[in-house]
Amino acid sequence: MVEKLDRVLRRAEEIRHLLATADGAQFGALSKELSEIEPLVEKVNALRAAERARDEAEAMLADPEMRDLAEAEYQEQRDRVPALARELQLMLLPKDEADERSAILEIRPAAGGDEAALFAAELFRAYQRYAEARRWRFEVLDYDESDLGGVKGAVAGIGSRGVFARLKFESGVHRVQRVPATETQGRIHTSTVTVAVLPEAEEVDVQVNEGDLRIDTYRASGAGGQHVNKTDSAVRITHIPSGIVVAMQEEKSQHKNRAKAMKVLRARLYEAERSRLATTRAADRKGQVGTGDRSERIRTYNFPQGRVTDHRIGLTLHKIDRVMLGEFDEIIDALTAEDEAARLAAEAA
Fold it and tell me: Rounded distance, CA 57 to CA 70, Å?
């Protein structure tokens, strides 16, 4: 790793010299490269400063007059060095180019009928609260409400830097166990909801040929709304080569529904291409959400016991009320840490 860090420092110094004589196009490219590696340079310098401070403090321990003063400094720097080294290792890992992007969130009920639809709506609101707490932009792209107040499907665009990196591990089957409001015998039911988190794609990422699209318009349907069944505002776009279908009816304007549907279509096509190019990641939408069968699940929300369990890492929290209010950080932090540990282990192997 030392050689790799030395190369980073040399490259940063080289770029600084080149910038002094670079023209417009070259200047922009060099500036971008420097901005990308500067955080790494700062971390390398911090690590080496901590190593020097540790070594100096260790040398002072031999002096009886300086020992007490040096002891605290030595302990502090001795603990700081491995922490900085780990941060550097993580920064040197191959980056997922999508991590810095905004995301598309899709939630749909799977097994469980009305109860699954109700929980899908609750989970959608929980993610909305989480986004709002982090001051992310949360735009409802489609919300197809069911008769009892649940959803047949809900889609949102969540905008801010790094949203996808934060939410990508939420993709999969979420299982809920509780007594439905409609249950007269007090029996616990098990239902499932599928969640897909896709990196938002730009037009430059995915070139969509208009000739590959079949666009149908129809009247919106749902539990209510003044425009329901009055105008042909709903839009269904089928991407013929891939078979991907996106339907939108949230807006009263057909034009707006089409724009939202294209946004989701690009995200799905972009993620499918990422999956094709990176076969080690089961990142395409089908791989993320599975079939929705009750036996498939990444997380269980058990209301009678007040617990949330993420089965991938064996994490159980007895705070289901807080999680359903959008407090996902403890779960997401644990999933991120587990992923980082696995990638570090793979890099070292």
Answer: 5
- Separation CA 53–CA 101 (nearest Å): 38
Rounded distance between C-alpha atoms, residue 286 and residue 290, angstroms:
6
> DSSP per residue over 34-68, as a string?
HHHHHHHHHHHHHHHHHHHHHHHHHHHTTSTTTHH
At 166, which helix (H) or strand (E)? helix 163-167
Cα 176 from chain centroid? 21
Measured at the CA of 125, the angle between CA 119 and CA 130, to 5 degrees, comes to 125
Q: How far apart are CA 244 and CA 331, in angstroms?
A: 31
What are 237-248's pLDDT values in tens digits? 999 988 899 998
What is the C-alpha end-to-end distance of the chain, expressed in Å? 14
- Residue 135: pLDDT band with limits 50, 70, 90: very high
Read off the pLDDT of residues 15-59 as tens digits, 9 standing for 90 and up: 999 998 888 878 888 988 888 889 899 999 999 999 999 999 999
